[in-house]
Fold these 2 entries.
Entry 1:
Amino acid sequence: MPDANEDPPDIEDALLRRGARSTPYPAAPSAIRSGRDTLSVEVALTVFRQMLRTRAIEERSIKMSKSGEAYFWIGGPGEEAFNVCLGLQINKGHGPAHDYLHLHYRNAGIMLTMGMPMIDHTRQLAMRWTDRHSRGRNFVGHYSIPEWNVIPVTSVIEVQFAMAPGTALVQKRHGQKNPTENEGITVVVGGEAGTAEGDFESCLNWTTRPGQELPVLMLVTNNRYGISTDLDTVHTHRPIADRAIPYGMRYETIDGNDPVATWHGIDRAMRYCRRERKPFLLETMVSRLHGHSSSSGAQRNWNEADSLAAFEQKLIDAGAIDTNAVRALKDEAKAEADRAVVETMKEPEPTREDVYAFTYAESAVDTIYPKDFTGLPGAR
Amino acid sequence: MPDANEDPPDIEDALLRRGARSTPYPAAPSAIRSGRDTLSVEVALTVFRQMLRTRAIEERSIKMSKSGEAYFWIGGPGEEAFNVCLGLQINKGHGPAHDYLHLHYRNAGIMLTMGMPMIDHTRQLAMRWTDRHSRGRNFVGHYSIPEWNVIPVTSVIEVQFAMAPGTALVQKRHGQKNPTENEGITVVVGGEAGTAEGDFESCLNWTTRPGQELPVLMLVTNNRYGISTDLDTVHTHRPIADRAIPYGMRYETIDGNDPVATWHGIDRAMRYCRRERKPFLLETMVSRLHGHSSSSGAQRNWNEADSLAAFEQKLIDAGAIDTNAVRALKDEAKAEADRAVVETMKEPEPTREDVYAFTYAESAVDTIYPKDFTGLPGAR
Amino acid sequence: MANMAQAVRMALHFGEKHLGVTDVFGEDVGPPLGGVFTATQGLRTAWNTPLDERGIIGTAMGIAYAGGRPVCEIQFCDYAFNVLDMFKIAGNQRWASGGGYDMPLVVMTPNGAGIRGSLYHSHSFESWASRLPGWKVVMPSNALDAYGLMLAAIKDPNPVLVLLPKALLRAKDTRLIPGEPADADELSRMIDAPVNDRVGWEPNWPNLEDHTVKIGSAELVREGTFGTVISYGRPLPLCAQAADELAAQHYRTFDVIDLRSIFPYDWGMISRSVLKTGRVLIVNEDTEVTNFGEHLLRRVVDEHFYDLSVRPRTLMGKHVPGIGMNQNYEVNSVPQLGDIRTALWDLATEAA
Amino acid sequence: MANMAQAVRMALHFGEKHLGVTDVFGEDVGPPLGGVFTATQGLRTAWNTPLDERGIIGTAMGIAYAGGRPVCEIQFCDYAFNVLDMFKIAGNQRWASGGGYDMPLVVMTPNGAGIRGSLYHSHSFESWASRLPGWKVVMPSNALDAYGLMLAAIKDPNPVLVLLPKALLRAKDTRLIPGEPADADELSRMIDAPVNDRVGWEPNWPNLEDHTVKIGSAELVREGTFGTVISYGRPLPLCAQAADELAAQHYRTFDVIDLRSIFPYDWGMISRSVLKTGRVLIVNEDTEVTNFGEHLLRRVVDEHFYDLSVRPRTLMGKHVPGIGMNQNYEVNSVPQLGDIRTALWDLATEAA
Ligand SMILES: Cc1ncc(C[n+]2csc(CCOP(=O)(O)OP(=O)(O)O)c2C)c(N)n1
Ligand SMILES: Cc1ncc(C[n+]2csc(CCOP(=O)(O)OP(=O)(O)O)c2C)c(N)n1
Ligand SMILES: [Mg+2]
Ligand SMILES: [Mg+2]
């Protein structure tokens, strides 16, 4: 298998910024269609493969949480189309010329698609010292990758929406001073229930100050539930996307279970943010295939639509792939996930000595903690 | 002068719940008009007189803050039309059959119009123990009148919007159980800058839960400034009232400097809340005649439109009142304010012994503080 | 034999039936879930709110203002920090309004570490809460006290915060709540919602009786002479266990005080015990800088400095930004049984 | 001769010019007002925000994440309580992300009572702030230190909270900030915005120099042998004055320590002084239950119990729901000069 983890193949112009590589699958039809939207077979198959990989790591993760290899699981089975289509269109890199990502806790697919190896997911899940995101401190899916502008995910619902204007402000200024680096945007993701927190409104407001509009792509993954609470019981039956209206912000609601629609919905919204340097609110309707988290059992919910199964059928029906190739891809993805877990479980755990590490950055102006936190001031 | 403080005269059907009394002024024309709206002369003159009284107490209050009789002043000169028209239409009383008021700090006019004697305003301003709202503890305009459902005003901007759904919930249930007492609504008032806090959104959201809509009249007094900050620099140039749109809430923006328009705007919104048992967002455009507070000098700003002067002119032009009668009313109002101040300054201040008083209500299940707070547990 | 979650649920039922509770609400508090720890299953007045802690506390205040009797939940105390301003207001409004309004409000929230909850399901809240004048704050360490303190909280006309130690919510009590069936399985059949299909499920409440643990009354759970241990909540059973071990193995006995009420606290019981033993250890799991245990230590020093035989001690959580998910973080951040045993031993054996 | 507000303003100007400060922002921080206490007048990067504390701290964090150098203001610390969760996150994100990101963030906010500010312009915040691991917290008691601590805060790559004693913001220092003109009127003409028409006004900044007060370094402002007084912020000058009075009138001298840094604090200086005097008084104006001063007392008891000659003391604000507007409330709620003098006298004269 090509090392697609580190460097996913290039797709259309949205991806031109990455090195080119051709897709391994011969394309029978020229495009996959959904309503008026189409996706080239090349892109469609890449999306499909990344969706499969995402599903594989999620399912393996759930298994880990049940087997005792890990403890708590939360993630995004059912959101693969959204995660993958977003991950493929990110302007990846470090600093304000590139996109900043303020993510939710169901976004493994974004990271895998951007090139994060699966083991960087399982290390966090298994609470290893090698966990690059949190050194075994945080829940799974709480990523942090400075090189790619992935801001540390925190469990506190919606706070990422209050931070997003800050990164976007720096990006907008950076682009004004450096016109060739005027494409970076801030991408912020959260669930629909979380939009009831004031921070969601803060983001709407702070990104639309007159003359100071900010390039923030606000993404709401609407799975219609906050844990057990049905959205329809706690929120007026209008789309979350309507929240953009009082701010004159552009908005749209798309079917996040349809990868073709999702690809283009994200593309339209992103293009607008990148070029206009203004915000966009995009709501994607998604499924929650394994409930909220391992705390609610993480059993598969067969009543929810499965974007992956549907897309597989669609690609087969269109002659873009055959069942043998699908099986091979699935096996590959599962094997990749298994290898990550095996490797992970060999790795060291944090120790007693690590409790305080990384509390403070080195400081030349602090007489007590010049290097890092070392216990109470002057403690022996 | 009739003791209008305690019991303002009745006006039209909105006021039928109070005892009848006739107005002292002969009405030459039959109605005062503004656009398509009209107000009977009787009502117009009552509004006018209450506006004069409100202005008188505010101006006297500013003087107190400058003379050393008081310290800090904040209030509502420029919002008289709004305050008076609202105060006259409140369903006054105690308990869920009547209106609950969650007020802003510029609402002296509401209280005077509802019948609060001026001295209950100046006692707080002069920090007397006789201050019924706060025992000399809080800033002026931070009213609290349990008998009239006036919830304690707090300086923390916008929190009243998070509390309003609670009183309205009790009212709605009460009305469902007691169909003859199904008219009480919750009235919540705040400035336009404060709508940037998440609590404003909490109110929009919590009052529009499907099937659980709540009778809350959300009022925004838009004077276009938060202290020194021009709304146009920190908020998209759309009406604040648009914030109702994503929730399917009814909304309107009215000219709060026009008492006729204001009367009817409030009447329409209130009628809707009372009858439909649902929320309404009403934005009133108002003036800020003396700046933010005494901290910014409280000088008169002559660039702002003065609803009182304009209404006086309008009434005179219409032949509803003459200049002598206006002068007499003004003198009366000023004298009333002066008397309140003189009386206030004779009254006692709180003492050292009062510091802890009223921290806790009596409790039969508390072994340490059965009556009230008495210092640290077991303190001698 | 009820566990603490069941005890809370039964107390709330008692509150609905006999004490005028009008609303039990919060995120996932109503059907179908009945609370992330099942503490609100089957309650008549339970309902689900939007995901908005400010709305929860604000609405609770409004209900209380209008004469209702609300009990609301912050799903984890870790999520109370965006609404501390409203906690403050709920606590100060009576004072600020010169006694104009009471604020009969109960907020309950799971507290502390011990469920492998990582950063945001491990916070302790009692030190923050103790800084909220106007509030009363209680924390049970067992199911019976949870029942009794919850009833006190409901009856008290002031705002009361009930902190529930997360790690003890599933711990069964050895004692029965008055009215509770003696058989734990029977209780479960009566009041635990079925795991899967809950449509049409109704609880079958036992005929519960009043049992009120008064606010401000601690309990002396062990008696001894070699020192005084003051604790509450999750570490309390560990303190009792450590004391038992030292008593059995080394004949060193201790007064172990379960404070139960954080504020107001039972100064009388603390004071009497300190006078008797002259040795004090205060144990809790909250972070150690500006910790409520330090307040207790200050009171002890204020009033009993000259009665102390040896240095009074605290054993508290480390000053860390969070409790890490890996257990090596947690066991080295919050006091464990071994730490308590060692601290007790040192306290008892230090030469006066 | 600058007052504290001017000193902060000059420090921020120095920060913009030499230390890479990119944004100074908050409610009314930008033109025309330049801050409710004038501390941000004339600054090149100052701007006004919506009335939204969560947006302020959140945006500051975002700016810091993206490589900016933000200094933001919460208009009064009294309004920081709806955003404590984000304070916590700003403090824990480095630890939580295993050192992935620094958080070079400065938050400044006026603190404490003394301006007749009633309930909501009188809160003290240092005890709350000291419970935020990952943060550094400083509080100057004079203009020169305000300048020096603000520069340290800006240079430090960690989140630093600068608490400014409200009541001292207009207090002039006797010393000059390096580069400040000797004539206070001249300084005012150069950097104070005109009261009325500000259109076109530009400050004329003096050529300021670096002067950094390192975080964690206290200052011994009085030396003596009869006791150790530990304070900071608003009560500090009162402690110095009380010490001077007792020295002049009764020949009782004291070490008076201006802590300056709340966290981390200068334990070395405290420890040395306590060893010398054996008598300790800790003074601040925050409410007394779970007060940072109680933490300091606990440290003293932990490490110097057997070095103490007499009971160590605290003098703190009362546990009240608020500071009342009428001065009779305030003077009986927070320590006054007379209270401090009495406490010092008692400390010095208690028989060992
Ligand atoms: C501020 C805060 N309150 C409560 C929680 C507990 N909690 C975790 S996830 C969740 C539901 C989130 O629902 P939604 O925003 O729709 O996201 P989803 O999980 O459906 O993707 C809740 C209430 C939290 N993490 N943070
Ligand atoms: C939560 C909070 N933040 C900041 C303040 C300080 N403050 C007092 S009034 C005010 C401006 C309010 O503006 P607006 O809401 O428009 O009301 P207005 O004063 O114009 O009537 C501010 C920022 C406060 N009182 N509360
Ligand atoms: Mg959801
Ligand atoms: Mg305004």
Entry 2:
Amino acid sequence: MKKLVNRPEDVVRESLQGLGAAHPDLVEVHLDPHYVVRAGAPVAGKVGLVSGGGSGHEPMHAGYVGRGMLDGACPGEVFTSPTPDQIYECTKRVSSGRGVVHIVKNYTGDVMNFEMAAEMAQGEGIEIRSVVINDDVAVEDSLYTAGRRGVGATVLAEKLAGARAEAGGSLEEVADVVRKVNDHARSMGMALTSCIVPAVGKPTFDIGDDEMEIGIGIHGEPGRQRMKLEPADQIVDRLLEPILDDLGARPGERVLAFVNGMGGTPTIELYVVYRRVAERLRQRGLTIERSLVGSYITSLEMAGCSITILRLDDELVSLWDAPVVTPGLRWGA
Amino acid sequence: MKKLVNRPEDVVRESLQGLGAAHPDLVEVHLDPHYVVRAGAPVAGKVGLVSGGGSGHEPMHAGYVGRGMLDGACPGEVFTSPTPDQIYECTKRVSSGRGVVHIVKNYTGDVMNFEMAAEMAQGEGIEIRSVVINDDVAVEDSLYTAGRRGVGATVLAEKLAGARAEAGGSLEEVADVVRKVNDHARSMGMALTSCIVPAVGKPTFDIGDDEMEIGIGIHGEPGRQRMKLEPADQIVDRLLEPILDDLGARPGERVLAFVNGMGGTPTIELYVVYRRVAERLRQRGLTIERSLVGSYITSLEMAGCSITILRLDDELVSLWDAPVVTPGLRWGA
Amino acid sequence: MGGIVLDCERNLRWLERLAGLLAEQAGPLTELDAAIGDADHGINMERGFNAVKERVLAQAAGKDLGTVLKQVGTTLVSTVGGAGGPLYGTFFLRMGQSADGKSELDARELRDALAAGVEGVRQRGRAQPGEKTMLDALVPALEALDAALAAGSDNRAAWEAAARAAEEGSRATVPMLARKGRASYLGERSIGHQDPGATSSALLIRSLAEVVG
Amino acid sequence: MGGIVLDCERNLRWLERLAGLLAEQAGPLTELDAAIGDADHGINMERGFNAVKERVLAQAAGKDLGTVLKQVGTTLVSTVGGAGGPLYGTFFLRMGQSADGKSELDARELRDALAAGVEGVRQRGRAQPGEKTMLDALVPALEALDAALAAGSDNRAAWEAAARAAEEGSRATVPMLARKGRASYLGERSIGHQDPGATSSALLIRSLAEVVG
Ligand SMILES: Nc1ncnc2c1ncn2[C@@H]1O[C@H](COP(=O)(O)OP(=O)(O)O)[C@@H](O)[C@H]1O
Ligand SMILES: Nc1ncnc2c1ncn2[C@@H]1O[C@H](COP(=O)(O)OP(=O)(O)O)[C@@H](O)[C@H]1O
Ligand SMILES: [Mg+2]
Ligand SMILES: [Mg+2]
Ligand SMILES: [Mg+2]
Ligand SMILES: [Mg+2]
């Protein structure tokens, strides 16, 4: 297992300590239970915004704590949802009395743990709105499953709802932005290599030297199909078609195009991918009004990428452009 | 070769096209010869700042073109210095009459190609200052070699000199910032895995499952020694001691700590590394006044990290804090 | 049937045995989870039961059954995470509530405590048997226990039947299509693999069967 | 010795042969560079000589020797990059300047053109023989050529001696400690590997030896 770590059981804690040491101006790290809040939390008069999930997806979520994005993040063990007490403590810590929005990715564990934490917080008189993100078109939607997984749209929802909260939005308004992003965004990913969970010490899945997994999950969960490796342009087309079909975006619409690296894929390749995304969207008559290219929601050292397309309107564009100052995403201030 | 690319020979061009498509507000990409300039270049009345080198180190250099950093970048083929005509064309394009500073990493190829380009530009009446960066303590310095390699300090020099140029600094003042950064910064890197040059299609070096290379170069060049893999904290100590010894930093001094990922190492590990860096610097009586954690000068998909320590004074701190708006580094505006 | 089948001492032996089994089987459980999930089920359960040993079992002297089981539940909720944490946490919380204040359980009371735990899992996870989850071990176990007790089996035999039913139930998840939890995202590709949660649930019933009597 | 040893047609045959050799040896040259450099020397040289074929050789009809060689030089400078680009570019530029305006070279003129090219490499790279670079093939080749010509050998034999000296020179780089270029960063670890630039330089001399006479 080739990783820059000490003992596998200490990875999450030590990485959080590093984050806290590197960005004391932006975040405050609390251990046992683990959570990260914006420096100076709670912000008086502001709706709180909290997210969380398993670790291993950095910079998500703890790297998105700061002005204009999250008030708090709850990192679980690697690829394991956080526990209700983490979420509850974090929620209490960022609550300024105007309520707290929970952004929850659609995994059974996340949903149940956030649900229990919300019950506990509500018991203390904190109003909670939980919005579940489920943007991954790789999973065939069905009444008979737990639904779709939450992936790339989470990053966009955290940024956009964070801007609404920063601008003084009400609990319902902030939750509405999360809902809107979830409704208007679709994603799909692929992997060239597996990730290795530190405590496991070996690859989550085996994959041939000439194979790729299309529709991979952010925990290395299998996707739509295993197939022979293809050139980047064809891979992009395989990801983009289901996204656009499902999104039902029509010619003339404006979108945000988000090309995400899975952790082990270098920037030079992400821009090769972005080139084709831009070309295809143009061919479909869509206008890329904003873009994001980088490794923002990762799966440890997995090589691969995901694409997220978000339909934009004026509200979302102005929320996107609002200042954000976090360890992982920063502009405008 | 597991990469998100089309034909290996098109990687550099297509990645540049993607960069241009993603950031039309920030950069303008020119092909044949390849160079990237700040949107709207040249900036009237401003000293130009140009860097360049082989591709494969993204976001360096093209990702650092924009306000407060580079005016132009010249990407060569993967791991191959750019050619004089690229550098010459780029230099002409960003020149506003106040002269142009070339930031050159200390590799024979880079030095010779920039030298030829500078001769050509000077022949056209453009005043050039070339400053060579050579901060890598992995290479024993000796009169009998080409000296030390240029690595992490390059990113810092581009940011800091870019701020001085943006603030109206003269040709000599901007070149002086580059020289100062080079004098006051030292770096060392390590690798867990090899990179794969696309045109070669297989790893540059072989390395055992339980081995690491200490003192690796950013092109996968061998370093000080091949040894058994160790816990992150010990690896940090191996990199940091030679850096601090060579830097001669004394207790009470202020530094910038830069933990850099080599391309295939995820953020969670970089913060584990940063944690130990902060701990050791504290033990040595040094104050970390600024930090940078992320994959800023990479070697394709190589897993590993490098550490750069820069001694700070008030001038450098204020240049660091100045706004920067580029695809790869952004804050304050 | 009127005798005591679980007392404080046996309860601790059960939980220690379960902790031991989960530590021993952590690797295989995680392997099962790697195939149709995210490769953490064994690690999570082992971490949770290590905390149970430290925080609950080491301090259990003099505490009644209900208190200990509820503490196991809250400890699992706050240390396991994922789907397993709330589900196993709820299982033990509900079992503890059912045994509230008691230091000994007879056959009926233990059966009711188990039933309360299983019902908690069902409510928390909103799943049904046949959806390739923990319930596919727990529900058959409860049914086999009830049938055996109704048929007049002694406690050892009845719990042996329950443990076998849980084990068969966990093996019977192999051909199932997952409809709940992370594995459901796989659709058809979830078929052909044994469910990790059902497998750990069978260990839970087996270890309990070993101590009752 | 007064005869013509290189004319326009032979010059083109040389450059085409060299381009062919570099394409054929691109893999091995890159392997050598992987050991003590950055694994690109063969790729770079092949890319440069492909451009030479397209941009220079395909349009060379009617052009004198000097013009063609200078065009080879500028093409290499603008397509090879790295250390190889300026060094080989300078080599051909200087050779072309030495042959300026000529369409035929006699033995002395060709020797002088080679010497001018080698001197260009020496100046551009500020290196000496013995530092594990191209010069360790080029300088012995020039010395062997001079010695053979002084001893009265015929052209074929003299150039054969030069080619052998270049090849021996490139092999002699194996035990050397690199003192220039990327390999010098390795210090002691550069010992035991053959220098890629010296190896490609030996191909240059060998291909030239094949056409003169
Ligand atoms: N809704 C549910 N109801 C009952 N059991 C469930 C449900 N969802 C998941 N499970 C069980 O949880 C197990 C996975 O647990 P674990 O790996 O610890 O959590 P996660 O899936 O969050 O990583 C599955 O094998 C399944 O038995
Ligand atoms: N200063 C120098 N003088 C002469 N030859 C040199 C010098 N530096 C490097 N070389 C030659 O260049 C070769 C490497 O070329 P190449 O791989 O194309 O460039 P780079 O090192 O920039 O990748 C070396 O093998 C060596 O022969
Ligand atoms: Mg999990
Ligand atoms: Mg090179
Ligand atoms: Mg799991
Ligand atoms: Mg090379």
